[in-house]
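Figure 3 (text version): structure tokens given as input.
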């Protein structure tokens, strides 16, 4: 049998927009600045600083607030509770505090003065119903507010943003 000729296949040329990276690297290299890559083996270059914050033992309160944030992201919070995660901006908070200051609960001295004036009117002969005008004040306290909300008498509920869990 006669020996057969083997044909070598030609490799397809690179597309016209793709250039060889080796040729570019040789052109851009400056002979004055020699490239010396660092070696991090034993007894050689010092290893670079790494971010070790992942391995730090964080304080208890930091771990708690991070876990709480992740839980809130992963759990579906009911809308009635989720509405309290939105805090007021500064201007609205100032307006709210001005409103609440107008309905501040009376002090012991003010209450004593009001009750003595009421007792004098009753002693003078007026009816108790006319003189018994109790001032409108802001209600406070967890149990009291809860009962007002359940009986649907609360018109506005304000909760501090650092209260956890919302009761």
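Below: residues designed for each position.
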């Amino acid at each position: 049998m006669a020996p057969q000729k083997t044909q070598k296949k030609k490799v397809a040329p690179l597309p016209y927009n793709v250039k060889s990276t080796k040729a570019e690297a040789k052109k851009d290299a400056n002979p004055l600045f020699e490239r010396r890559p660092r070696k991090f083996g034993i007894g050689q270059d010092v290893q670079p600083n790494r971010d070790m914050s992942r391995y730090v033992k964080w304080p208890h309160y930091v771990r708690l607030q991070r876990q709480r944030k992740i839980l809130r992201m992963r759990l579906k919070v009911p809308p009635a509770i989720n509405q309290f995660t939105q805090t007021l901006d500064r201007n609205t908070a100032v307006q709210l505090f001005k409103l609440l200051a107008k309905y501040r609960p009376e002090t012991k001295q003010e209450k004593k003065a009001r009750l003595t004036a009421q007792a004098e009117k009753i002693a003078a002969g007026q009816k108790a119903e006319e003189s018994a005008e109790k001032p409108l004040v802001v209600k406070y306290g967890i149990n009291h507010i809860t009962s007002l909300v359940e009986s649907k008498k609360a018109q506005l509920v304000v909760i501090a943003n650092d209260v956890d869990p919302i009761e």
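The mean pLDDT is 83.
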